[in-house]
Amino acid sequence: MEIRQLEALVGIADHGTFSSAAEALGTVQSNISNRIARLEHELGSELIDRASGALTESGVIVAERARRVLAEVSAIASDVSELNADIHGKVSLGMIGTAGRWIVPMLLEAQRATYPHIALRITEGTNSVIEPQLVNGQIDIAVLAWPVLAPELTEIDLFSEDLVLIVDKQHPLAALSSVSFATLANYELLLPFPGTPIRREIDDSAHAQGIELKPVIELDGLRTIASMTFDGHGPSILPATMLSPHLRERFTAVPIEHIAKRRVSLVSRRFGFPAAPVRAIHALLIDVVKSADTAPAGVFIDTSTSPAMLKE
């Protein structure tokens, strides 16, 4: 079994076809085909369905292991560079959108100053999108909403943020200084999709008061929910950071009584030893958030979190 064979399989998994994998790996399609054929022969199992181009069940299992192998190989050079106090490498960071809009600019500035030879690649998405990518090694670390469900992952708290009712100033609820769940039960709301971390926070607080909210629609995407509110489709329950300053002329954020704050965590894989660039960005991200003096209104930073490096 050769590294190039594993690279070929992961390339097909990531890019969808033999030709696209060849282009990404800087080779020709025939080389990719030969590497996959040799790997299949050695393992005694078909890894790619030649009719559909999709990975077989065996292929998915091998690709997941291959990502970890390739990550360890890549980490060797990074760890050696760390000994020379000049860390080189790439780090893939997952980020929920509400955190990314204020964390990423600070992180980028700090990374350029402290680790100029680390290349950052940031993927924005929901927990449901990013968690599987973090588990299988496509992403190195992630900033996600709590709770994180995958048992392969571990997290530390970064900050918490207020959940508020975002509503047009012409709406009857906009005149309230705060709103109860009993009052909200009289209105249809734009709500996050059931089972998502933020929806669990909302439902737990509502159910504790014997209230069942009425959704006009349920979506797994906070930006889409916010856009629909801003386009006039009704009020929504969202993190306070979703109401940008330029929108406050038309919309307001009404505090909700007896609702828990939304927790946001820095998440990594539970097992394995991360490469030096990943450990460096993990610690830098904690330090950047902890020392932030420009956090948005409604964000509460846990200054007790230690910026320790990831451990094996």
Structure description:
With 312 residues, this protein is of the alpha/beta class. It folds into three domains: 3-77, Orthogonal Bundle (Arc Repressor Mutant, subunit A); 87-160 and 263-301, D-Maltodextrin-Binding Protein, domain 2 (3-Layer(aba) Sandwich); 163-260, D-Maltodextrin-Binding Protein, domain 2 (3-Layer(aba) Sandwich), CATH 3.40.190. 42% of the residues lie in helices and 21% in strands. The strands form three sheets. Strands 2-1-3-10-4-11 form a six-stranded mixed β-sheet, sandwiched between helices. The chain has a three-stranded antiparallel β-sheet with strand order 8-5-9, with helices on one face. α8 (197-208) links the parallel β6 and β7. The radius of gyration is 23 Å and the shape is elongated. It starts with a helix and ends in an 11-residue tail after the last strand. 35% of the residues are buried.
Could you name the key traits of this structure?
312 residues; alpha/beta; Arc Repressor Mutant, subunit A; D-Maltodextrin-Binding Protein, domain 2; 3 domains; six-stranded mixed beta sheet; three-stranded antiparallel beta sheet
How are the elements arranged and paired?
Blueprint: H1 3-15, H2 18-25, H3 29-43, H4 57-83, E1 89-95, H5 97-114, E2 118-124, H6 127-135, E3 141-145, E4 153-161, E5 163-168, H7 181-184, E6 188-192, H8 197-208, E7 214-219, H9 222-230, E8 236-239, E9 251-255, E10 262-269, H10 276-290, E11 299-301
Parallel strand pairs: 1-2, 1-3, 6-7
Antiparallel strand pairs: 3-10, 4-10, 4-11, 5-8, 5-9
